[in-house]
Amino acid sequence: IELIFNILLIFFLLHFIYSKxxxxxxxVSLGSDLNNVSKYDILLxxxxxxxxxxxxxxxxxxxxGNFSKNFLLNEKIIFGIGASIASFLFFFLLGYLSxxxxxxxxxxxxxxxxxxxxxxxxxxxxxxxFLETIN
Length: 135
Prior knowledge:
By secondary structure, this protein is mainly α. The chain is 78% helix and 0% strand.
């Protein structure tokens, strides 16, 4: 079962990397009229993106679960606490910095840098999973 999950994870990561490479040089358009959006719509969309997003579950179950599967129980607990704290800090900072950083989000150059970082990081993770799979 571990081999099957590792292979599935490798395919998932390769597909994710491919999708980032495919959109690498696309034009960015984030402009929309936010004055006509109700608080109910914002709440509903936030809940939808949070709980209906398959990446939430795939990241948590497949990626983090896969990397922690060989840890001892106390290491798993520490890893889980660390991952939770990192996730909280990331989303907390992302939320508060979004207003400040939104003026840069229209730049194609900035998105290319972000996508390049994601491609490199996910390629590194894929390589680690591949090495673990062949061992």
